Amino acid sequence: MTHPVHPIHPEPVPLLPYIGKWLLLSAAVAALAGSASALFLFSLEWATATREASRWLIWLLPLAGFAVGWLYLRYGQQVEAGNNLLIDEIHDPKKVIPLRMAPLVLGGTVISHLFGASVGREGTAVQMGGALADQLTRLFRLQHEDRRIILMAGISAGFASVFGTPLAGAVFGLEVLAIGRLRYDAILPCMLAAILADQVSLLWGVQHSHYLVPHIPAVSAWGLAAMLLAGAVFGLAGKLFADATHALSAQMKRWIAYAPLRPLAGGLLLAVLAWALPLDRYLGLGIPTMVEAFQQPLAPYDFAAKLALTVLSLGSGFKGGEVTPLFYIGATLGNALAPLLQLPLPLLAGVGFVAVFAGAANTPLASTLMAMELFGSDIGIYAALACVVSYLCSGHSGIYKAQRLGQGKHRPVPEGLRLGELPRKPGAGPE
Questions:
Q1: Residue 9 C-beta-side C-alpha neighbours within 13 Å
Q2: Cα gap 353→323, rounded to integer Å
Q3: Is the domain of 179 the same as that of 281?
Q4: Among its keywords, does the record have Membrane (predicted)?
Q5: Rounded Cα–Cα distance for residues 153 and 157 (Å)
Q6: The CATH number of the domain where 226 resides is what?
Q7: Positions of the chain with pLDDT under 70
Q8: How far apart are alpha carbons 26 and 34 in whole angstroms?
Q9: What are the φ/ψ torsions at residue 151 (nearest 5 degrees)?
Q10: Distances (CA, A) of 196 to 23, 164, 363
Q11: Residue 387's CB: how many other CB atoms inside 10 A?
Q12: pLDDT at residue 7 in the model
């Protein structure tokens, strides 16, 4: 019996339409996300400068929180889940994300920074990138599988353009979806979108912050051992941040049923604390303090103060990201650990910068690449070791409750569950 013989084409031939399709789609995503990030970063610069010049604005934080809470209650309930909505739609596509997510999170985050909330910027850039990218689903009538990929490309583009780290951004879009799993079918679109979005933001004139690690010591037995110890501390800090933020958010919902009153209450407490205590260095992004962490010893409690104020801000409902506060917490915690571990201060500040994020977001690969992009490739061995240990020590928790459990870190877990559905204690129900 003979079998029909099919013509064999060289593999690159059918690959060309695939590459062409995703080159065009990724370029469109990059143009949208990179431009949105540029607008966002310029708006943040204005908001930060205005707040620092007018310290009394902190007293308007409760009213600002109420206003943003009311806008989300009235117009944004479909998009309030933010990054978690993007992750859910990638895993289980249902309907195109409303375009209103982009202006709502942009305005809400700028208002948070203008009046003094301690929040970040990654969540905003990722949500804008994802929401804008998803509008191409309707335009090009994309099927579910292609829609998943374009959402991932939007996440990568937003992350890369807001931080100026295209390789970390590309891998973040692949890695953040599930613990222990990577989606390699989206690697080309995520890589293209991240690299191009970063270039688009630079063309708009964006200038990213620079952190200097002037000397990376040669690899030594003590250096590696110290990274194991530091990585464990960074992972526990990331876990504390994530768990405390989720716990306060849940408690606020139990205490205060009407959503706009939650940021009003949290904003009032934050305003009183900021007026009574010298807390200015912990408000907003805190980039000057992060730069200082690479240059000189800081107060050993800086990381704890930033963690507490960010948990209060995010847990009570203010809009913004978690990642830049995690960078701040990591850099200042590394600054405090450096003399104890007898390592150069800039080295441990740089490693902490990415390792606390690695533990809280469950993204050790993206975090390692970010360290190498920001501080140079020589830091790679130290950063990789600390990020992996931080990832392991943070347990099965994280800042994104919609992350799926692809594979347990060090013990069997029910695969496919959202992090928010995982029992926290033996015999306990889901969160």
A1: 6
A2: 10
A3: no
A4: yes
A5: 6
A6: 1.10.3080.10
A7: 1-13, 424-431
A8: 11
A9: -65, -40
A10: 10, 11, 22
A11: 30
A12: 54
Domain identity same for 312 and 385 = yes
- Residue 1 counted as domain residue: no
Q: Cα–Cα distance between 267 and 104 in angstroms, integer? A: 19
**What pLDDT score was predicted for residue 10?**
58
Contact call for residues 25 and 18 (beta carbons, < 8 A)? no
Q: 179 has which bridge partners?
A: 405
CA gap 365, 378 in Å, rounded: 16
- How does DSSP classify residue 133? H
Q: Confirm whether pTM is higher than 0.70.
A: yes
Count of beta carbons in the 10 Å neighbourhood of residue 44: 22
**Which candidate, 122, 162, 166, places its Cα nearest to that of 26?**
166
For residues 129 and 241, membership in a common domain is answered with no
Single-letter code of the amino acid located at 80 = E
For residue 139, the SS3 value is: helix
Annotate 47-78 with DSSP letters as a single string: HHHHHHH-GGGGGGHHHHHHHHHHHHHHH-TT
Strand partners, 405: 179
What residues have CB less than 8 Å from 119, skipping those under 6 apart? 109, 112, 113, 284, 310, 313, 314, 318, 319, 320, 321, 325
Alpha helices in 101-142 (DSSP H): 101-115, 122-140
- Residue 284, SS3 per DSSP: coil
Q: 367: domain range? A: 221-400
Q: Which contiguous run of DSSP H or E holds residue 178?
A: strand 178-179
Calculate the alpha carbon distances from 394 to 34, 388, 407 in Å: 32, 10, 15
Q: Which residue type, as a one-letter code, is found at position 195?
A: I
Q: Which CA distances in Å does 323 have to 48, 184, 273, 292?
A: 18, 24, 23, 18
Query: Residue 425 — φ and ψ, nearest 5°?
Result: -135, 155
- Give the dihedral of Cα atoms 237, 241, 243, 247; nearest 10 deg: 150
DSSP-based three-state secondary structure for 175: helix
pLDDT tens per residue, range 258-281: 999 999 999 999 999 999 999 999
Which residues are CB-neighbours of 215 under 8 A, at least 6 positions away?
344, 346, 347
| Three-state secondary-structure class, residue 404 | strand
**Among 38, 290, 327, residue whose Cα is nearest residue 162:** 38
Taking alpha carbons only, the member of 125, 193, 220, 168 closest to residue 387 is 168
